[in-house]
Amino acid sequence: MTTMTLDKLKAGERAVIRAVRGEGALRLRLLDMGLIPRTKLTFRKAAPLGDPIEINIRGYELTLRLNEAQNIEVEKIEESEAGAEL
Amino acid sequence: MSRPLVFALAGNQNCGKTTLFNALTGSNQHVGNFPGVTVEQKSGIVRSVKNRKVTVVDLPGIYSLRPYTMEEIVSRDFIINEKPDGIINIVDATNIERNLYLTLQLLELRMPTVIALNMMDEVRANGGTIDVLALSDALGVPVVPISAIRGEGVSELVDRAIEVASEGILPKVWDFCDENSPVHRCIHAVVHVIDDHAQRAGISSRFCATKLIEGDDGTLSGRLQLDQNELELIEHCIQEMESETDFDRNEALADMRYTFIEKVVADTVVKPRESREHRRSLAIDKVLTGKYTAIPVFFAVMFLVFWLTFNVVGTGLSDIMSLGIEKLTQLCDSALVTYGINDVVRSLIIDGIFAGVGSVLSFLPIIVTLFFFLSILEDTGYMARVAFIMDKPLRKFGLSGRSFVPMLMGFGCTVPAIMATRTLASERDRRMTIMLTPFMSCSAKIPIYAVFGAAFFPRHAAIVMIGLYATGIILGIAAACVLKNTVFRGQPVPFVMELPNYRLPSLRSVGLLLWDKAKDFIHRAFTIIFLGTIVIWFLQTFDARFNVVEDSADSLLAHAGRILAPLFVPAGFGDWRAVTALISGFTAKEAVVSTLSVLTGNIGATELRQALPALFTPLSAFSFLLFTLLYTPCVAAVAAIRRELNSRLWMLGVVFMLCATAWAVSTVVYQIGKRLPGFGTVDYIIFALTVAALFAAFVWLARRNRGEVYATSDKAPSTGTTSALNPVRKRRSRGCHR
Q1: pLDDT band (50, 70, 90) for residue B662
Q2: What does pLDDT average to over chain B?
Q3: Interface confidence (ipTM) of the complex
Q4: Between chains, do B63 and A33 touch, taking CB under 8 Å as contact?
Q5: pTM check: above 0.95
């Protein structure tokens, strides 16, 4: 049970969103795209130059920048838990 | 004939909206702009309905109806102000959760609505099912499964849409939360406050309530004519809800919608774990966005598109087109001569209209070819990946990844490059890219570089040319940094963007887009460009007393050149012939060379090469080249800028900015070069690059002091789920809870 921000995840790791911060248009955009507390996501990969990143959420692929991802607090799902769920 | 109907077509990006729109309307489309903004508005008549006029307006692809992006605002305003008879909401069945988020907001509008459940064929092919009847029940509106790309279900969709609109059938469900939840109580209370106002304004009170809770941009409360008391009452309700739930207002409503959607989806959708298309996309992305492969593949794709457009297909077609125009011109010319028409009129038709419009029309094949490739890149989903790959390097200059493509095409021709900015997601990026594209030296300037290079820098012609291109790029970057901190300051656009599954493009959509672009360009060629070429012809043909000139040195154009010439003395080319050539270059850059030939009395390229040293020194020639690199693009490009920026003022601003930069750079280089004797060609280039780089560095430093765009978000409070939405609200909330 480790909380961290979304940008700190590694490729292939799964996590649950705990909080969505940020302001104005950015935060609303995140909420609209389905990044809401309690939602599960998978970190796919970072772009070749390290930024932005790609995540899988609600069955689709979403990309966002690292500084945008910093606003999302997540809790990592450990491998065994993730396996049990699938 | 029954009453005509108007529908708004609304949906997310990448859900097949354009394909459905094309399937509904065919080539029967009208393209314009939403009032006051550069967001494109397409409307068309539904072709399958014969006995009444059914119009569909294609709203921009949006994820929500919040008043934040330009696209969301125009969509909301269109629905509220224009009051269409119904809404067709297209939903991607393969990505139903997120797509229904917009649907719920549309349903709150309480207007006749029908849902087009697109890509049902894909869902079925993957062994999934969607209980359409149950979904329809849960949402309270008709749901029609369709496949827009195959045209399946489209006629049924039209029938149902006409039915709900003509009978005024409203959605049966518009409440998406538990009756005992704080969110429900809050919405209910706000509805109670504003109900009368909303009825008077003719807008759904439910929609107004949720939008007021989410934070209004002032439009709604103005429309509803709410007084201070009522606004405070509403604010009180919201704060009560916030303190009862863990969420702030925005989270609460987003959570309410997604919770409702999750339940509906769980009840109606049977989905296999991962669809074939999605797995295939992930596999393709292993290469196309892979750590080591992405960038090489990207440059290979760009090179291929560029090479095919400007070298293989485009030029071939362009040559055929020019040949055709030439033949037509000759035919007309001899017919006019036979007819014995007045010489001035003949000159107007042949030298003015045919030559001017003809040279511009020869761009057409290049435009069509480029758009063919661009639309394929866009429709397959690769453009979204381009943004993903190139975002980091371009963000430094205040642009986003997608801006790379139009700017690269600018090296071929500025006209299609500027038209290609349509693919950019945000208005800010679009405007900025349009303003920067002219810095990329277009291929029509190559003849100028070639003639001057051969005449003045025979041993270093290639280095001079590379130096000019590099100077353009560096100054473009510098201009980007300036624009980012001045005109476009404080308008950051969240990058948060979907990477859609790779899909085969629909040939019909590609075809219609090409037709659209070609039509648009031809229209411009015969209006603004036509006018521009006639003006130049007029100036070239007459002298100040409106007599036809014998010697082109007496023409009005030459006079204008003489008047303007002193302006260019500091830049080293104050000769009226050089200035006149620059003016004529406004019709097309190639004209700079041909005008210089005529004015110096030398027709061939070799003779011109020998005559040029009488007009320029190597230094002033280099300064002249810098000016041609940077000054106003040709009339066709300016017309494209005017069209895409949708403003004459902005267009003039861009032209002025370019001319001023050109003048400043060439003057600085000439003045300093003049004071440094013994300078060789290579030194000029190094020097020009240094000037440009210093300029860029200066701007860069100025920028750094202002800090990063999102710096403010770091200051968000670190406790729980509350966000710092705005200080005013927080202050008020403290006062209220005491």
Answers
A1: very high
A2: 83
A3: 0.92
A4: yes
A5: no
Measured N-to-C along each axis, helices B228-244 and B182-201 cross at an angle, to the nearest 10 degrees, of: 160
The residue whose two tokens read 């400007």 is B310
CB contact under 8 A, A70 and B68: no
Cα–chain center distance at B411: 18
**CATH (residue range A3-85):** 2.30.30.90
Tell me if A22 and B497 make a contact (CB, 8 A cut-off): no
Listing DSSP states for A3-70 in one string gives EEEGGG--TT-EEEEEEE---HHHHHHHHHTT--TT-EEEEEEE-TTS-SEEEEETTEEEEE-HHHHT
Q: Do A60 and B725 touch (CB under 8 A)?
A: no
Nearest by CB to B392, which of A20, A51, A70?
A: A51
Chain segment A43-84, per-residue pLDDT in tens: 999 999 888 999 999 989 999 999 899 999 999 988 655 444
| pLDDT tens track for B246-278 | 888 999 999 999 999 999 999 999 877 678 888
Is the backbone peptide bond immediately before A52 cis, with ω within 30 degrees of 0? yes
Beta partners for residue B269, in sequence order: B130
Task: State residue B681's pLDDT score.
Answer: 61
In DSSP terms, B30 is beta-bridged to B43
CA distance B299 to chain A (A): 14
The two tokens of residue B682 are: 């290579």
Mean pLDDT, rounded, for B668-673: 86
Q: Domains in chain B, please, with CATH? A: 5-167 (3.40.50.300), 182-270 (1.10.287.1770)
Q: Which pLDDT score is estimated for B697?
A: 67
Which B positions 290-309 lie with beta carbon below 8 A of chain A? 290-292, 294-295
Record the tokens describing residue B153, joined without a space.
Answer: 């279900």
Among chain B residues, the shortest Cα distance to A44 is held by B282
